[in-house]
Amino acid sequence: MAKFPSDEWVSEYERMINQSESYKEAGKTWEGDILFVVKPDSGEGEPNYIYLDLHHGECRSSRYVHPGEEPPKTQFRYIGKLGNWKKLMNGEIDPIQGILTGKFKLEGSMMKIMRYTKAAKVMVDTVSKVPTEF
Amino acid sequence: MWFFRSPEVVFGEDSLSFLSNLDRERFLIVTDRFLATTTLPGLLKESIGSNRQFMTFAGIGEEPNEDEILSSISDIREFNPEVVIGMGGGSAIDSAKIIYALNEREDLTPFDITPLEEIGLGKKSILVAVPTTSGTGSDCSWAAVFSGSKEKRKNEVASPEILPRYSILDPSMVLSLPPEQTRNTATDAITHAVEAYGSHWRNPYSDAMAEKSLELITGSLTEVIEDPTNVFHRGNVHVGASMAGMAFSNSQVGLAHALGHALGARFRIAHGKAVGLFLPSVVKFNYGAVKERYDRLNMIFPKKFRKESLDRTLTSYFLAIGQAVSVKSAGLDGNEYALLIDEMTDLAMESTGVLTNPADSDKGRLKEFFGEVI
Known about the structure:
The structure holds 2 protein chains of 2 kinds. Chain A has helices at 7-19, 21-26, 82-89, 95-100, 110-114, 117-129, and strands at 2-3, 31-39, 48-55, 58-65, 76-81, 104-107, 132-133. Chain A is an alpha/beta fold. Chain A has a 5-stranded mixed beta sheet. A two-stranded parallel ribbon of chain A has the order 1-7. The longest helix of chain A has 13 residues, at 7-19. Chain B is α/β, with parallel strands linked by helices. Chain B folds into 2 domains: 8-173, 3-Layer(aba) Sandwich (Rossmann fold); 179-372, Up-down Bundle (Dehydroquinate synthase-like, alpha domain), CATH 1.20.1090.10. Chain B is 47% helix and 12% strand. Chain B has helices at 40-48, 66-69, 73-79, 90-104, 179-198, 204-226, 231-249, 255-266, 271-286, 291-300, 310-321, 334-339, 341-349, 353-356, 363-372, and strands at 8-11, 26-32, 53-60, 83-88, 126-131, 143-147, 154-158, 166-169. In chain B, the strands form 2 sheets. In chain B, strands 1-8-5-4-2-3 form a 6-stranded parallel beta sheet. In chain B, strands 6-7 form a two-stranded antiparallel ribbon. In chain B, α4 (90-104) links the parallel β4 (83-88) and β5. In chain B, α5 runs antiparallel to α6 (204-226), α5 packs parallel to α9 (271-286) and α8 runs antiparallel to α9. Classes of the chains: A alpha/beta, B alpha/beta.
């Protein structure tokens, strides 16, 4: 069981993404890094960041950005409060619906993301498979 | 949390006359090149009133691209319309949505139309849809599709701010719709209703629209095909198509649209014919995931067409109305089609229909669908 977010959780997530045949297929032409931004529910305090470098169906590298570290600049940022991340991970919200309802904010090209909705779904399905504690 | 979005709908005979009540002076009519040669633009202007100022932009073709849509944007900005009317099928109405947005915000490109942020439209003008086909649902949707100028793919942009303020469903605008287009567009509407009803994003509002739309369309379409001038049945199909548009635009479509869009990007084929081609196979594939729902829809079809399952009913219904159920009957070159299956499969994988379809699929399964309709 890995705490979300943490080094251990991110490492396990990367491992599972790279084991996923579905992701390999759905993301095979995707190029671009993404930052998951986990904001505190209260609106106070610093967000947590998870960096993923996704390229041609593979997660080339990933890391948990420790508190106090400057988050890297990425092509995409997917931003939401911890409570909404929990719902996403439990399958209560799907990633695109999350954007359309304002529970998540996407920074980056919506047009590009919309061509990879299957890859986004596999990424979220994989998140839910990581044994997680909050 | 979810939404149900819809324009204000004016429907029934003489509904065009509603436009004369608008306290606005300058009306832009966006339509396609073919419709511009018919009596419909004149009928529309007459209904609005001859004391208004009009500009007609009739530069829209069958598959408009960005350059085509924006070819007169400078003149349009100079005209400064207070009402932008999209009159036609999906291409004309979708083009009107983009023109409406870019007339208001000169700093935008079509690709800036996104649901991610407020665009700030509606300050100069309002958007009105006057559909002249019964099927695309564009009059009720907040998306616009246009072809790429360079790439052979269809782009979809979306924002709640490009949802038309009014949709005018006047049967007089569809009385002269040719049989082939009547069939194709109605098939598109049936596909909208069936896919919306099974979608992962379905909701009570979209369900209600999908059920009623199917009842109206299947209860009147064969009568319209027999007697195209029957105003009552034309009106039913017209309203049903709009309701199917409300259903899918509030819940999304599924794999039949993913596959149909991919086919349409590679072959010259009517959109309704393309999506209808795949609908029975997709429904059969989805049955286990939404059996109860599909069984309910099956009961809506008139008894004479109804079979033991929805996929079989759809095939029977499509055959009865003369809708293509195979690549061959759709008039496509089977050899060329076979050669392009891999390419079309890749395109279909990019569709959100893959995400919202009730049963999960992968690339291999999508490829099989293309094979099943040869």
